[in-house]
Amino acid sequence: MFNLKNKTIIITGGCGLIGSAFSEECAKHSANIIIADTNVEKGKKLEKQIKTETGNQDIVFQKCDITNNKDIQNLIVVTLKKFKKIDALVNNAYPRNENYGRKFDDISFEDFCENINLHLGGYFLMSKEVSKIMMKQNYGNIVNMDSIYGFLAQRFEIYEGTDMTVPAEYAAIKGGIINLTKYLASYLGEHNIRVNALSPGGVFNHQPESFVKKYSDRVVLGKRMANPEDLIGVLLFLLSDTSKYITGQNIVVDGGWSL
User: Fold this and answer.
1) Which residue in 159, 170, 187, 245 is the catalytic one?
2) Which residues pair with 203 in a beta bridge?
3) Helix (H), strand (E) at residue 129
4) CA 32/CA 10 separation, integer angstroms
5) Four-point Cα dihedral 89, 58, 29, 52, nearest 10
6) Which residue of 22, 97, 215, 217 has the fewest CB atoms within a 10 Å radius of its CB?
7) CA-based nearest residue to 66, from 3, 136, 135, 129
8) How far apart are CA 93 and CA 215, in angstroms?
9) Contact 93, 100 (CB under 8 A)
């Protein structure tokens, strides 16, 4: 059902915690993968690793900053030269500036605007440029990585006792991505391009123990945070033809945390 054979898929932020898991799993399902990331050293290493572990040699790393149009054009050129088409784009990158992560009272207006431009703006720019190719093909598929905090109020009590918080930019960005997804699904639908969002709950990444416990206590399934592997099934579903009649949707993968 989740056959991705010969599908050409660009995964931005492909070297990150979630992106690397996505890249490897799609490669296992025989897709042509373009790992797009700003970390060249990590990207080349991941490309080699995936080729070795999966036997799939149709893996390409391409340096790309999703806020840089020149980088995006180079990415598109490399992809089309190698694979002749673009079947899918996974907007997964998470760009942010050096001040990202501050509490509300400490966020400057400049940082707020810059982080929205980097993340939400980057998703817009990638989608705009890649969809030009998809419109010429008269088919395509875009998956936007979102978050439960794109449609839920933040639970600040679970961050108490840690240096963590949910930045105001994150709420604005992720809420914007859900609506951008619907906009693009409506706008691009006549070209047989579908656009959906995937909203994970909290993904474990060695956060402070007190946070992990408070978060996990709210989870219905297993009382634990998500792992990247928990998201893979939904991604494969959205990238495959199994979901060919689904567009404009936000699929939540949070173990029931948002109930």
Assistant:
1) 170
2) 226
3) helix 109-137
4) 9
5) -130
6) 217
7) 129
8) 24
9) no
Chain position carrying tokens 């949070």: 254
pLDDT at res. 122: 98
Alpha-carbon span 51 to 17, nearest angstrom: 18
Residues in a beta bridge with 59 = 33
pTM: 0.97
Residue among 15, 54, 55, 53 nearest 34 (CA): 15
Q: Is 67 helix (H, G, I), strand (E, B) or coil?
A: coil
Read off the tokens for 36: 């797009």
Query: Which two three-digit tokens encode residue 75?
Result: 């990415």
Task: Supply 162's token pair.
Answer: 């840690």
Q: According to the model, what pLDDT value does residue 1 have?
A: 80
User: Is residue 170 among the annotated active site residues?
Assistant: yes
pLDDT digits over 78-107, tens only? 999 999 999 999 999 999 999 999 999 999
Q: If we measure between CA atoms, which residue out of 226, 219, 222, 234 comes closest to residue 203?
A: 226
* Token pair recorded at residue 8: 């050409």
**Residue 17 CB neighbour total at 10 angstroms:** 14
26 pLDDT above the threshold of 90: yes
Token digits of residue 185: 């699904």
Establish how many alpha carbons lie within 13 A of residue 43's alpha carbon, considering only the half-sphere containing its beta carbon.
19
Alpha carbon distance 191, 250 (integer Å)? 20
Pairing of the two strands 140-145 and 8-12: unpaired
> Given a cut of 90, is residue 37 above it in pLDDT?
yes
